[in-house]
Write a structure and sequence with these properties.
282 residues; mainly alpha; 12 helices; 61% helix; globular
Length: 282
């Protein structure tokens, strides 16, 4: 959108001061990072290489652990895992340069050329989209912890977890923490999947249009938005009961006799189906 580092910093400050992204640590330090200048008056961010190596050198492992646990526990967490994948890819800059040369260049990003009014609306949609992705990331993270809790019988009190995250954690997000603390404090339900809570559903539904607009704009302009696009897809398939996976299931039964369930039967647990079809003549 042809914004300067200072303008981006100002926008992040606005996001962090009010609304759904209020008191969000990563937005807060994002504002500071964008505005920080060195002793020569140059923005520090402009000199930093696009290379995250901490996953590779082992000095930072939360992304790896989260992805491993999500896969091991069969918990869909694409917002978290896609963020991790792009970090891992970024570490191999030398390899990316070779691939770029092979392709004859990268896919160029289109710059914003619209009117000021349109830019303001786009920024507001972006704010809402980022909030939706943050909230989805919390949902996925809590689902991972909940599955591990059930497996290990830790009896985790999620209201206490939210307090820990609120007090000095890099995922601190005051607005989201207020909402989640109220949910976990007032409810005694054993089911802790936040996607079953009307308040969370309403928050995600109301911000879904902005998330969709931003992902569409990102696709059109070749912007790199892995977690935003993954969050959109997660919402689409998590609330849908007519997925294209019926075709996957048919293929699995075709080549491996893996069995399937029928639409006419009640929705059941994720266990092997009771039916098989002989797709090929004997």
């Amino acid at each position: 959108m042809a914004m300067t580092y200072d303008e981006i910093g100002d926008e992040f400050e606005r996001w962090n001061s009010e609304g759904e992204l209020r008191g969000t640590f990563l937005i807060d330090i994002g504002a500071k990072i964008n505005k920080q200048k060195d002793d020569k008056g140059k923005h520090v961010l402009s000199r930093i290489e696009d290379k995250v190596v901490q996953d590779i050198d082992g000095s930072e492992g939360t992304g790896t652990w989260s992805s491993m646990e999500a896969i091991r526990l069969h918990v869909p967490a694409p917002t978290l895992t896609d963020a991790h994948y792009v970090r891992v890819e970024s570490a191999f800059r030398k390899e990316r340069k070779r691939v770029k040369a092979t392709f004859g260049g990268h896919f160029p990003e289109d710059k914003w050329t619209g009117a000021t009014e349109g830019k303001e609306q786009l920024l507001e949609d972006l704010r809402k989209a980022v909030y939706a992705a943050f909230l989805v990331a919390f949902v996925q993270g809590i689902n991972i912890i909940d599955q591990a809790d059930q497996e290990n019988k830790w009896r985790i009190d999620f209201s206490e977890v939210i307090q820990i995250w609120r007090n000095g954690c890099i995922i601190r997000a005051d607005y989201i923490s207020d909402m989640l603390e109220e949910i976990f404090t007032k409810s005694s339900e054993a089911d802790r999947d936040l996607m079953h809570r009307p308040r969370i559903a309403e928050e995600l539904k109301s911000n879904f249009p902005s998330l969709k607009k931003i992902v569409m704009k990102g696709v059109e302009s070749n912007a790199i938005i892995p977690s935003l696009s993954a969050s959109l897809e997660y919402l689409k398939y998590s609330v849908n009961t007519i997925l294209p996976t019926q075709f996957y299931e048919a293929q699995l039964d075709y080549f491996g006799k893996h069995m399937f369930d029928l639409k006419s039967e009640p929705a059941g647990e994720p266990v092997t189906g009771k039916h098989h079809f002989e797709w090929k003549p004997a």
